[in-house]
UniProtKB/TrEMBL annotation, chain A:
Residues 20-224 form the MacB-like periplasmic core domain. The chain crosses the membrane at residues 20-45, 316-338, 370-394, 406-429. InterPro entries: ABC3_permease_C, MacB_PCD, Macrolide_Exporter_MacB. Keywords: Cell membrane, Membrane, Transmembrane, Transmembrane helix. Residues 320-436 form the ABC3 transporter permease C-terminal domain. GO terms for molecular function: transmembrane transporter activity. This is Putative ABC transport system permease protein. Coiled coil: none annotated. It is found in: Cell membrane. The keyword Membrane applies. GO terms for cellular component: plasma membrane. The keyword Transmembrane helix applies. It is a multi-pass membrane protein.
UniProtKB/TrEMBL annotation, chain B:
CDD domains: ABC_MJ0796_LolCDE_FtsE (cd03255). One of its GO terms (molecular function) is transmembrane transporter activity. Residues 2-229 form the ABC transporter domain. It comes from Pseudoalteromonas peptidolytica F12-50-A1. One of its GO terms (cellular component) is transmembrane transporter complex. Belongs to the ABC transporter superfamily. Macrolide exporter (TC 3.A.1.122) family. InterPro entries: AAA+_ATPase (IPR003593), ABC_transporter-like_ATP-bd (IPR003439), ABC_transporter-like_CS (IPR017871), MacB-like_ATP-bd (IPR017911), P-loop_NTPase (IPR027417). The keyword ATP-binding applies. This is Putative ABC transport system ATP-binding protein. Transmembrane segments: none annotated. The keyword Transmembrane helix does not apply. Keywords: ATP-binding, Nucleotide-binding, Transport.
Length: 443, 229
């Protein structure tokens, strides 16, 4: 019977090609707009690391001076979201979390060992402790994180991204080979596999939707080699460094290092907060931390909301997009009423030869599902196009990120069919209800 | 076999009540060829629609092949209609975008038949009306008489006990009409009952039995003598 109804549906759609096209395109536009918006907001609101988001914490300490607070929000003093170098190192040495790492960053001209200087590229580089790779679930294609010695000694080792590996080594296993950062040679210990945390929760807000950096080196290597790019870090001071030297930067009360800790569980949070409290009190004895002790731990979600990378509430664009879909569907419904109205003669005849109302409803439902399916398919194409346009408009969203997941693709089709059915039901029931005898005078 | 007791039908529109059929008793036996005559608006089509379960009646009882149809669900009525009744209309009522084959297929689709059996029945029915060779044509490619033949093929494909024909030759010229009449008589001769509304006294005369409806009142008509023709 399904085969028969499918055949009838295609004959019927072919009979009124323009009307069918309008119905399909109306659904497609609504679905396209809704799913573009949904995909963008889904990706923006995504949990970047679901398995860990309750266990990873951004650490904040109120290291600012006694004269004025770092910031006031909603009438309350808030500490900076980044730490001084000395605090970061103190926390790192205390090892109070399951894993922990400071995060630094800089930029440097980078090239392959055999590449001429002219081919060197300015590259954004991340520095961290090896714990970062396991904390952030970084997948490796080749090799892995560097060892503890590299962390301690600040050895010239690097983990590079798959893209950079493709560029410099044509995608071959480059572990053991080297690349040049500045004029120094760094030995590659690992190549990451696809790793696109969305949003990139551990980076500054403006970079939250950029790709992770192509090169990661030990934090201490950055320090030892005095690698510093002032334009690449937030460097916030309440007291200027004593001079321009790198050692003065490290010794200063200026904040620039973001610090992450992994705890065994959400419950472990208060223990770590106690530790931060003791630490703050201890620092007072050295004449630091003279403000209110405002140490805080934010898990991934809280941190993203706090830094306004993500919004807590649903977004209005999404509501508008689905309202627009509703309007499109109402339009489509009007066309379905018209479409089925032309078929009252056929309904009467089919009833006369023995079709029940259910048979008629089934026949028209299949036709409506096909309209929904075609509308959904076309809507999917429109949504892909919408995402490409969105990626062009918002350069802080990288294009690869704006891809529909398989789940969203399936959801798009299902949504198209179910909404076509939901809005088609009334016209269908109406059509099936016609008094057959009244329709048999002429066809 | 079809039996109606004290059956009546009234239409209620907003303010007016039209008594389309006054209470009547009627029995039609298997194999009968019954002609229904009467002036326009007298209730002939209404009678046919009730007989074919396309419309509900108001009072009385109706048994179709031994089944009391009064409390049947839409589904059960549709099934009964599909199996027992074949309709033939004045305006043919073929679906223009379906081939002759698919038009004849239509009643069979609402039954659980194998595709082989459907095919045999369709070709058999089209063969009986002499149009098997044109199975893949569309209705618009046929003359009126041929279209009505297809409609008859559709009506008999399901092997119903009754054919209900509402002025089947009303839209045809006399030569084509004669062909259709001959075909119906042929079908009747094989045992299918036929109830046919007609305005043509000659056609009525060829039926075994004539029922006249006047202002909703059914009466058994005198058998019209063939001599008139
Ligand atoms: N759906 C309806 N609603 C109200 N009145 C109706 C309806 N159908 C038929 N009637 C009325 O019932 C009466 C009988 O109509 P019917 O169609 O049965 O006449 P008929 O004998 O077939 O006429 P004709 O020879 O012109 O086809 C008429 O007065 C008609 O107006
Ligand atoms: Mg009539």
């Amino acid at each position: 019977m399904l085969g028969y109804y499918l055949k009838l549906a295609f004959i019927s759609l072919k009979k009124t090609p323009f009307l069918s096209f309008l119905m399909i395109i109306t659904i497609a536009i609504g679905i396209g707009a809704a799913m573009t918006t949904y995909t963008v907001s889904y990706l923006l609101a995504k949990d970047p690391i679901p398995s860990k988001s309750e266990k990873l914490f951004n650490v904040r300490l109120n290291s600012f001076g006694p004269d004025k607070p770092f910031n006031i929000a909603k009438g309350k003093e808030v500490p900076p979201t980044i730490l001084t170098y000395q605090d970061a190192m103190n926390l790192q040495n205390a090892q109070q979390g399951v894993r922990q790492t400071p995060l630094g960053s800089f930029k440097m001209m980078t090239r392959g060992i055999t590449q001429p200087v002219t081919e060197a590229k300015m590259t954004a580089i991340r520095s961290a402790y090896r714990d970062m790779f396991s904390m952030f679930d970084v997948p490796f294609k080749f090799g892995g994180a560097w060892d503890e010695v590299a962390d301690k000694e600040g050895l010239q080792v690097a983990v590079i991204s798959q893209e950079l590996n493709d560029k410099l080594f044509l995608g071959e296993n480059s572990v053991g080979k080297s690349l040049l950062i500045g004029e120094s040679s760094y030995q590659i210990v690992g190549v990451t596999d696809d790793w696109y945390p969305i949003p990139k929760f551990f980076d500054y807000r403006v970079r939250a939707y950029n790709k992770p950096r192509d090169i990661i080196i030990p934090f201490n290597t950055q320090i030892n080699n005095e690698l510093w790019t002032s334009s690449d870090v937030s460097f916030l001071c309440w007291k200027e460094p004593s001079d321009d030297s790198f050692s003065a930067i490290l010794a200063s009360e200026c904040v620039w290092v973001s610090y992450w800790v992994e705890l065994a569980s959400e419950a472990d949070r208060s223990r770590y907060l106690d530790f931060l409290h003791r630490y703050s009190m201890e620092q007072r004895e050295y004449g630091r931390f003279l403000r209110e002790p405002l140490h805080q731990l934010f898990n991934v979600k809280e941190d993203l909301v706090d830094r306004k990378v993500q919004k807590e509430d649903g977004n209005i664009a999404l509501w508008l997009a689905f309202a627009f879909l509703g309007v499109c569907l109402l339009n489509c419904m009007a066309m379905m009423v018209a479409k089925f109205h032309t078929k009252t003669g056929e309904v009467g005849l089919r009833r006369a030869v023995g079709a029940s109302k259910q048979d008629i409803v089934a026949q028209f439902s299949i036709e409506t599902c096909i309209v929904g399916l075609l509308g959904g398919g076309l809507g999917l194409l429109l949504a892909q196009f919408g995402l490409v346009v969105t990626a062009q408009l918002y350069s802080h969203l990288y294009a690869e990120m704006l891809e529909m997941t398989f789940g969203i693709v399936v959801m798009t089709i299902v949504l198209a069919i179910t909404s076509a059915m939901a809005f088609g039901l009334l016209p269908i029931l109406h059509a099936a209800k016609v008094q057959p005898s009244s329709q048999l005078k002429s066809l | 076999m079809l039996s109606m007791r004290h059956l009546s039908k009234a239409y209620h529109t907003d303010t007016i009540k039209t008594q389309a059929l006054q209470p009547f008793d009627l029995t039609i036996e298997q194999g009968e060829f019954v002609a229904i005559i009467g002036p326009s608006g007298s209730g002939k089509t209404t009678f046919l629609n009730i007989t074919g379960l396309l419309e509900d009646f108001c009072e009385g009882s109706y048994e179709l092949d031994g089944v009391n149809v009064e409390h049947l669900s839409d589904k059960a009525k549709s099934k009964l209609r599909n199996e027992k009744v074949g309709f033939i209309f004045q305006s043919f009522n073929l679906i223009p975008e379906l081939t002759l084959y698919d038009n004849v297929d239509m009643p069979l689709r609402y039954r659980k038949l194998s595709s082989k059996e459907r095919h045999e029945r369709i070709m058999d029915a089209l063969g009986k009306v002499g149009l098997a060779s044109r199975r893949d044509h569309y209705p618009a490619q046929l003359s009126g008489g041929q279209q009505q033949r297809v409609a008859i093929a559709r009506a008999i494909a399901g092997k119903p006990s009754f054919l209900l024909a509402d002025e089947p030759t009303g839209n045809l010229d006399s030569k084509m009409a004669e062909g259709i009449m001959a075909l119906l008589e042929d079908i009747n001769a094989q045992g299918t009952s036929i109830v046919m509304v007609t305005h043509d006294p000659n056609q009525a005369a060829r039926a075994q039995r004539v029922i006249e409806i006047r202002d909703g009142i059914l009466s058994e008509g005198k058998r019209i003598e063939k001599a008139i023709a």
